[in-house]
Amino acid sequence: MEFYTGIPPLLMQFIMTVAFSFVVGLEFRSYHHSNDYKLHFGSTRTFVLIGMLGFILFTLDTSRLLFGVGLMLLGLFLLVFYWRLSAKSQFSLFSTVYLLLIYLIGPIACLFPSWFLMLFIVVLILVLSEKTVIHHFSDQLANEEIATLAKFLIISGVILPLLPDQPIAPMLPVTYYRVWLAVIIVSGFSYLSYLVNTYFFKSRSLLITGLLGGLYSSTAATVVIGRSAHGLDSTSGRKVSSALIMATTMMYIRLLAIIFMFDQSVALELLKPFVVLIFISLLMIVALLTVKNHEPDLHDVTDVKHPLELSTAIAFALLFMLFAFVTNFVTTEYGGYGLKTLAIVVGFTDIDPFILSLLSGKFTVSDSAVVSAIILASGSNNLLKAAYAIALARNRSVLFAAAWLIFLFVISIGYAYKYAW
Fold first, then answer.
1. Is 421 exposed, middle or buried (0-12, 13-18, 19+ CB in 10 A)?
2. Pair 132, 149 in one domain
3. What pTM was estimated for this model as a whole?
């Protein structure tokens, strides 16, 4: 460490420029040989010289005029190089642009932190070494995903900063900003689940459906698994039930992550009961899957609905404001006991907008009442999922999972009311 600090900064920057130019030059040479390119700009030495040229011209003249002239001259040389390539029906600009980036290694070593320089070099190397992977990914990526990413950037990076952080109305104690922030966070979790489902698990087992579907929506995952279980006999019960329990387990994990983003104190209060529910549910899944049986492998091929539709975002925002209005009325008129009753009822609908409106608004109840309401809502939502599973499967394959979901509902009710006291 003392040796490193004793090296003059200029010398250290020069060493990094030469070393990284040499390393990238080696990778570029290997890239050309592996792709059988007969015409290329130069060897590894050329890369080192270009890197040194950029460094010297950048540090020699503080006005950066010499550096700019050098960049223009290098660009002219590369233009001639590209003209020769085009004469041989090779129209790729890759090599020319790549060499211009090598010219920038010196200035980056001088101006930016060392971690950024290393990141820059790593990206340059990966662009060369992972050509096949990049081409495969770009071929597999649907065009509509680019538009979807643009939508997400618009709703998160453009719309959100423009919204005022002030209450919407006296009867709606939440702000415009918090409403849209809730939309972005929930949509972000759903979008992540959608991408993983679409591009990594196109053919997936029911357990994977429960795991990833629970990150998207445990109720929706329960509906999918319940429909898949229709027509199966009781011998498939262990795998079907484990998938249903996994979906609910992921619901608790997702809720903890979302709640932590809104209110860390409430998230810490929920950590103990939710971790217990997650742990015992995982133990039950392991017990179901480790028992030796001759159940057939069950797969689900149901497509996950795209989560970033404008209508879905608007519907969530409206539900958010509706629950904020109802919660404000109930807590004002009936206090904490009214909130608990409302939470149990809301559990039979979509609990995300209710929970997030509860965390975002300013209501006349204590944090303990908020924690109890979240536990009650998630618990009664398990009762709804048990009813969905039984109604859609209409056989014995889901009975164990339904019984487990009812058990989670009962202990949630017991814990919530005991916690309140």
1. exposed
2. no
3. 0.64
Same-domain check for residues 217 and 362: yes
d(CA 218, CA 332): 31
User: Of 99, 119, 137, at which residue does a domain stop?
Assistant: 137
Degrees to nearest 5, angle at CA 159 with 156 and 161: 85
Report the distance separating Cα 224 and Cα 211, nearest Å.
Answer: 12
Q: Which two tokens stand for residue 194?
A: 């959608």
Tell me the residue range of the domain where 306 lies: 144-420
Residues 189 and 277 in one domain: yes
pLDDT, tens digit, for every residue of 163-195?
777 777 777 777 788 787 777 777 777 777 667
Q: Which two tokens stand for residue 113?
A: 């932190």
Output the 3-class SS for the chain. Answer: CHHHHHCCHHHHHHHHHHHHHHHHHHHHHHHHHHCCCCCCCCCHHHHHHHHHHHHHHHHHCCCCHHHHHHHHHHHHHHHHHHHHHHHCCCCCCHHHHHHHHHHCHHHHHHHCCHHHHHHHHHHHHHHHHCHHHHHHHHHHCCHHHHHHHHHHHHHHHHHHHHCCCCEEECCEEEEHHHHHHHHHHHHHHHHHHHHHHHHCCCCEEHHHHHHHHHHHHHHHHHHHHHHHHCCCCHHHHHHHHHHHHHHHHHHHHHHHHHHHHHCHHHHHHHHHHHHHHHHHHHHHHHHHHHCCCCCCCCEECCCCCCCCCHHHHHHHHHHHHHHHHHHHHHHHHHHHHHHHHHHHHHCCCCHHHHHHHHHHCCCCCCHHHHHHHHHHHHHHHHHHHHHHHHHHHCCHHHHHHHHHHHHHHHHHHHHHHHHHC
* For range 21-36, the mean pLDDT: 74
Number of domains composing the chain: 2
- Decide if 385 contacts 248 (C-beta within 8 A): yes
What's the burial of 165, exposed, middle or buried (CB within 10 Å: 0-12/13-18/19+)? exposed
Per-residue pLDDT of 33-45, as tens digits, reads 665 555 456 677 8
- Specify the higher pLDDT residue, 340 or 197: 340
pLDDT at 3: 45
Q: Provide the pLDDT confidence category of residue 357 given band limits of 50, 70 and 90.
A: confident
